[in-house]
Structure formats: structure tokens, C-alpha cells
Design brief:
17 helices, eight-stranded mixed β-sheet, alpha+beta, globular
């Protein structure tokens, strides 16, 4: 028999009435009802109400216990009175009538309340994360994470994938985000790097003939924090497949995601196959390659209408090479003036000079530009926007890149303000056909736009005969509710095509052989066509848990400064450790005034 408990705090039912049992857990709450004390005892499995009566002889001692003290109670299970039953919890029909107790772990004064759950600064929560994790929602999130990962493994194995581990100590990558470097004691002056992703190794597994690989892979990138990105480390479902096309990769995700999201939520899911939206179309309609399709508002181009317009504010922008985009919000003409003022303020806060709009009422058209637009242009705009009485048309005009960005953010803001986003829906889509190349900020140099190791659509023929800026790649993202869950690609597995693609981006053959030696060398020994994808585990759990911040689904996350305050990470190390690793620390370089 277990020394501390015969049952957990979530186990006892009316079938146990009359039995002598022992339970142990944390004091979640105490209530004194006229000399009878009720204690809610909590453990990982649930909560049991313990009743301490005066005749037990332990009433005063238990009354003195602080919340969150770890206690063992021994007693008999009894049925609650009808009026005191709590059918909201599994143990709500019974009590444990305690006759003996033992304190197993004292609790000092808490830095914040756990029950009732108290809001606390994030830094305090992370400093006492072991206490924070006792809160019910956070505890549930971490359990959910475990269950989701277990289910993913089961389904991946059913699909014929095998889980293989790849190295954690690897080499620094010349492409991508900043690496975390690990000094080598045995090789002075040389460094390992923690993997940004298992990309190289999973492709080499395909060359080695393993065909279907997956891994719940830890990845490490020295990046700034965001609500949807954890600094330092994250986990992804990393997978790779041989002898596949883009459609084969899509089929795996379109099997897996409905299984996982249906198992762990009651939300409505996008039916398979998921919509496929070319990158160019996504940037036009949604102003983003991470569109939230729960939002019905779409963006459309009205540049041509203003090319010969008498409305000079837009015409001047168009004459200088800019564009004009518009979007229609259906049936919101009755919104108060403050709504439009707030939207204007938001547009200005994200870099727009203003926000023109037209309000189509039954008898007239109102708005800042209504009086200056000729009737002919008004009719063209109504046709372009599918305008009906009660609709409002918003406009953004600027240089193309800025217009796309601003219009996309305004679309998102409208969706939020107008409550267009159904929280009980998961809308998936694929973003496909990313451009292989783009111009750098100077507009003169061609560079890779997304993933340099992707297969160009059209292969070598496209690289030899087409304008590089028109070449598309077999690259794709999976997006859900405006959150990018993963990028993926069909890989460029043919050395000559890879050399040519890198040549267009300004790399010599020697540079490719030097920077990507392992991969390019392996491809000379018979590489199969292969491709893959790597959905983020943290982001999937965040969606399933209904959280807006990724730190709410990670047991021990870093803060926004890439620090873990509970254990004080990162921290200085001793001079002896640095000496052993052949390292000297240096102060950051001070920028000269003319560089600042």
C-alpha cells in the first residue's frame, strides 16, 4: 500500500462510501461553517472536499494551516446532503470525514494567490513558476500539451512514420536566425551550435533511405520574443518524406490536423482539402501571408479607378507609382462617429497618413471623400466593392509595400472591432507559390525570398530561361486563424539546380560547396526527391488552449528578454569555467556618434 495515499483527490465516488481512505494534496481552500471546517484538497487529478468536525479532535490544528500546505488526510468517505452536492466536479457527491491528518509540506506566505487565482505581473509569475503552474488553467494547458504530443506520435506512426533523433550539438548555420553557440573544451576556439531546426539532418536521413521521418524536435533560435514566439527554444513536429510531391505533404497534414484538433476541441474545423491560396493572391486579398479566414473582409485593388481621378490626394500617389487598395465592411453604416475616429487613429498609428472611407446610407453617401468623388467614379467603386446599402468602404493609398501592410492590419483591426472572428472555429489554409527570389532593399540585388533550399517550379529550365523575379518555388505555409503554424517545401535535391539557384542569388559554386558542404556533397550520391514541413507544437497548443500568449502553454518559458528568472538564466560563469573553455569575455563595442 502506498504510504501517502490510497486514492487520488479526483478518484473518490459514491461507490467508496463507508470506506476508510487516505488522500494527500495541497490545501486549495478552507471554509468554516459554524464550527465545521471544510477543506478543498487538490492534487494533479482533481479536488476532494474534506470535512473536519469538532469531535475529530483536529479542527483547531487544521484551521491554522495556510493555503497550499501539503497535507495527508485519513478518514471515511460519506455521502453529501442533497443541498450540498456539487455536480460540477467528479467528486462532488461525497466528502471525506477526516479523523487524522499530517502536514507533509509547510507553505510560507505566497507571493500571489493561487485560489482564487490572482492576476500577477508576468515577471513574478515566472519567478515562482512552480506556484503559477498550480493554477487550474495553466495546469490544464501543460497536461493538454502532453496529451497532444502523445496523440501526434500515435497518428504519425499510423501513417508509417518513424521517430528518429537528430543531434543537439551541431554546426553554426550561415543562413537563418542567430545561433546559440556552445564552446568546445576539446577543440579550443571552435564552437558547436544548438540546432535552429533539424533541417540538414532530416534531409540527410532521406538521402540515407529512411523514407518517412518525424520528431518532436527542440529548436533553438536567438530571436526576440513575441506573443506567438518563445525566445530561445521551441518545439516542432518535424517531418520529412521521400518520393513525394507537395500534394503528398499536404495530405499528411490534412489527415493529422483534423484528428488532433477534433480530439482536443469542440470547434468547427475547415473541411479538407484546406483552401490553397497563392502567395500573390493572399497579399492582395488579405494584406498578409498569414490570413485569418474567419474574417470575411477582403481587400481589392482600385488603383486604376484613381489614375485619371479628380481626387488629387490619391491621383498624386498613383502618379508616383503608388497603389490604392480598398475593402468593404458589410452592414456597418450605423456605427457611431467614434468608431471611425478610432479606426483613423489606428491607421495613423501604423504609419498611414489617414484613412478615407465612404458610408453608403439609403439616401446618400457620406465620408471624408464623398463630396470630391465624381458620380462615375463612385459607381465604379460600388461595383468593385460589391457595395450594398449599409456598407462602408475603406481606402489605403501609399507605396505598394506599405499599402499592402497597412491594408492588411486595418482588415485585421476591423475583424476584431466588429467581432467577426468566431472563437469556436479553426480556419486552416495553405499559402502556396511563394516567389523564389526577390530584390533586396536597394532594389538592385537578387536574393532568396523564403527558403534557399526549395525546388524552383520549372526546375533548371525556369532558372535558365525565366526572369528570376517571376520564378515560383515549391514552398508552402500552413496557417490557422491568422497564425502561421509552419513553413515547408519540396527540397531542391539536384546539385546542378542548386548551384544555379544560388548563382542567381550571388553565390559562387565554391561558396555553396563551402557553406553547405554536407548537403551538397550528399546530393552527389543519389538523393531522392523529398519534402517536408514542421508545424510548431507550441502554437498548436496555444490555439487549442484558447490562449493569446505562447508562454501560457510552456511549463518553464523565458520572458520577453530571453531570461528565465526562476533559475536566473542566463547567468555569469566562473573564470575557471571560461579558462577551461578558452574564452575571454569582451564589452560590447560602443558605436561612434556618426554610426548612431
Amino acid at each position: 500500500m502506498n504510504k501517502y495515499r490510497t486514492h487520488t483527490c479526483g478518484e473518490l465516488r459514491k461507490d467508496h462510501i463507508g470506506k476508510e481512505v487516505t488522500i494527500a494534496g495541497w490545501v486549495n481552500n478552507k471554509r468554516d461553517h459554524g464550527g465545521v471546517l471544510f477543506v478543498d484538497l487538490r492534487d494533479h487529478y482533481g479536488l476532494t472536499q474534506v470535512v473536519i468536525r469538532p469531535e475529530s479532535g483536529i479542527l483547531d490544528s487544521v484551521s491554522a494551516l495556510r493555503k497550499e500546505t501539503v497535507v495527508q488526510f485519513e478518514g471515511f468517505v460519506e455521502m453529501r446532503d442533497e443541498e450540498t452536492k456539487n455536480l460540477k466536479i467528479p467528486t462532488g457527491e461525497i466528502d471525506l470525514a477526516a479523523r487524522r491528518f499530517e502536514v507533509l509540506g509547510e507553505c510560507e506566505s505566497l507571493p500571489f494567490s493561487i485560489f482564487p487565482e490572482e492576476e500577477a505581473p508576468e515577471e513574478t509569475r515566472l519567478s515562482y513558476r512552480y506556484l503559477d503552474l498550480r493554477k487550474s488553467k495553466l495546469h490544464e494547458n501543460i497536461v493538454l500539451r502532453s496529451k497532444v504530443i502523445s496523440s501526434i506520435r500515435k497518428h504519425m506512426e499510423q501513417l508509417g512514420f518513424h521517430e528518429y533523433q537528430t543531434p543537439i550539438l551541431t554546426a553554426s548555420s550561415p543562413e537563418g536566425a542567430r545561433d546559440y553557440l556552445v564552446p568546445s573544451r576539446l577543440h579550443p576556439g571552435k564552437f558547436y551550435a544548438l540546432p535552429q531546426a533539424p533541417q540538414l539532418y532530416k534531409q540527410l536521413l532521406m538521402v540515407a533511405g529512411f523514407d518517412r521521418y518525424f520528431q518532436i524536435a527542440p529548436c533553438f533560435r536567438d530571436e526576440d520574443a513575441r506573443a506567438t514566439r518563445s525566445p530561445g527554444e521551441f518545439y516542432q513536429l518535424d517531418l520529412e518524406m521521400s518520393f513525394v510531391t507537395q500534394d503528398d505533404v499536404f495530405a499528411v497534414i490534412e489527415y493529422l490536423f483534423p484528428k488532433i484538433f477534433s480530439e482536443f476541441s469542440n470547434a468547427t474545423l475547415t473541411k479538407t482539402p484546406f483552401p490553397r491560396i497563392p502567395y500573390k493572391e493572399a497579399m492582395l486579398k488579405y494584406g498578409s501571408d498569414k490570413p485569418d479566414l474567419r474574417n470575411p473582409i477582403e481587400i481589392y485593388d482600385v488603383t486604376d479607378i484613381f489614375k485619371a481621378s479628380e481626387f488629387q490626394a490619391f491621383k498624386k500617389i498613383v502618379d508616383k507609382g503608388g497603389i490604392v487598395r480598398a475593402m468593404t465592411a458589410k452592414g456597418i453604416a450605423s456605427q457611431p462617429k467614434s468608431f471611425f475616429e478610432n479606426m483613423l487613429a489606428f491607421a495613423q498609428s501604423i504609419g498611414s497618413q489617414g484613412l478615407a472611407y465612404l458610408v453608403f446610407n439609403e439616401t446618400e453617401v457620406k465620408g471624408p471623400v464623398a463630396k470630391v468623388l465624381p458620380a462615375q467614379e463612385m459607381e465604379l467603386l460600388k461595383k468593385a466593392g460589391g457595395i450594398e446599402t449599409g456598407d462602408v468602404m475603406f481606402f489605403v493609398a501609399n507605396k505598394e509595400r506599405e499599402t499592402v501592410r497597412i491594408a492588411g492590419e486595418i482588415r485585421t483591426k476591423l475583424g476584431e472591432e466588429l467581432h467577426l472572428l468566431d472563437a469556436n472555429v479553426f480556419q486552416f489554409c495553405w499559402i502556396t507559390d511563394y516567389p523564389m527570389f526577390e530584390l533586396d532593399e536597394t532594389g538592385k540585388k537578387i536574393m532568396f525570398s523564403h527558403n534557399p533550399f526549395s525546388m524552383p517550379q520549372g526546375g533548371m529550365d525556369a532558372l535558365l530561361n525565366e526572369d528570376p523575379l517571376t520564378i515560383l518555388a515549391y514552398q508552402y505555409d500552413i496557417v490557422c486563424n491568422g497564425i502561421e503554424l509552419s513553413s515547408g517545401a519540396i527540397r531542391n535535391h539536384q546539385p546542378e539546380i542548386m548551384y544555379k539557384a544560388f548563382e542567381i542569388a550571388g553565390y559562387s559554386k565554391e561558396e555553396v560547396d563551402s557553406k553547405f558542404s554536407a548537403l551538397i556533397k550528399a546530393f552527389h550520391y543519389g538523393a531522392p526527391p523529398h519534402g517536408g514541413i514542421a508545424p510548431g507544437i507550441d502554437r498548436m497548443i496555444m490555439l487549442l488552449a484558447g490562449e493569446d500568449n505562447i508562454r501560457e502553454v510552456i511549463a518553464f518559458p523565458m520572458n520577453q528578454k530571453a531570461q528565465e528568472p526562476m533559475i536566473n538564466t542566463p547567468r555569469e560563469v566562473s573564470k575557471e569555467q571560461l579558462r577551461e573553455l578558452h574564452i575571454k569575455t569582451a564589452e560590447p563595442a560602443v558605436k561612434k556618434k556618426d554610426e548612431q
